[in-house]
Task: inverse folding
């Protein structure tokens, strides 16, 4: 049973299109993080959301944490080929000694 | 700040041999280090949590005698894959954190067992 469901798992779009990636759970997280990973490299932290309802923006990327802190979304506006990569959401549950629960990941391909 | 390194970045070994992977926090003291395994186009799978000076806590299904973890100092943890087999070939990633802080990930180690 996957504690953090991430969708879609694969996405191939044209440059300029918008997209949204979702992470959903029935559990409450004290914080949720989004990472981007290139092939052969470690994940790089994009953002951490902590407060229910929180919205954070990073250039063309908008991250939202659900009011109940059970879900999150990543929206990319006007995707570019440089956005291609594996996007991972990961949550920290309260009292879980900092252990990250990862979603399945979303492989994004942006075609020029 | 918060840089984590791994060594080696890639390794090829023969079946039956053991391989050691190092994870170092370069500019901070990491009370906890985590070891992950990742297959192509998949997410990270936590193998074990390692606290400095104590035994590692392994996730269900991970053989502790096969994947030996040592966290001897606040800046170094090692993962030894013993008697490696082709099915152990994977991308191994470590992360390091201070108490109640974000995990900082290393660049990963590609292990290929022939």
Result:
């Amino acid at each position: 049973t996957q504690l953090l469901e991430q969708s879609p798992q694969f996405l191939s779009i044209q440059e300029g299109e918008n997209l949204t990636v979702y992470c959903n759970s029935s559990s409450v997280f004290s914080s949720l993080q989004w990472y981007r990973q290139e092939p052969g490299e470690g994940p790089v932290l994009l953002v951490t959301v902590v407060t229910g309802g929180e919205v954070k923006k990073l250039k063309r990327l908008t991250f939202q944490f659900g009011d109940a802190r059970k879900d999150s979304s990543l929206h990319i506006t006007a995707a570019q080929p440089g956005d291609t990569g594996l996007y991972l959401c990961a949550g920290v549950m309260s009292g879980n000694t900092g252990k990250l629960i990862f979603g399945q990941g979303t492989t994004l391909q942006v075609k020029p | 700040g918060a840089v984590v390194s791994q060594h080696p970045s890639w390794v090829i070994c023969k079946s039956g041999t053991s391989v050691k992977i190092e994870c170092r926090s370069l500019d901070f003291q990491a009370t906890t280090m985590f070891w992950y395994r990742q297959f192509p186009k998949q997410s990270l799978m936590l193998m074990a949590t390692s606290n400095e000076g104590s035994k590692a806590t392994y996730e269900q299904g991970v053989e502790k005698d096969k994947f030996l973890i040592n966290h001897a100092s606040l800046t170094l943890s090692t993962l030894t894959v013993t008697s490696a087999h082709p099915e152990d070939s994977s991308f191994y990633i470590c992360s390091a954190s201070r108490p109640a802080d974000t995990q900082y990930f290393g660049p990963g180690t590609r292990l290929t067992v022939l």
Summary: The CA atoms of residues 25 and 71 of chain B lie 12 Å apart. Chain B has a mean pLDDT of 93. Chain B touches chain A through 26 residues (CB under 8 Å). The longest strand of chain B covers residues 44-51.
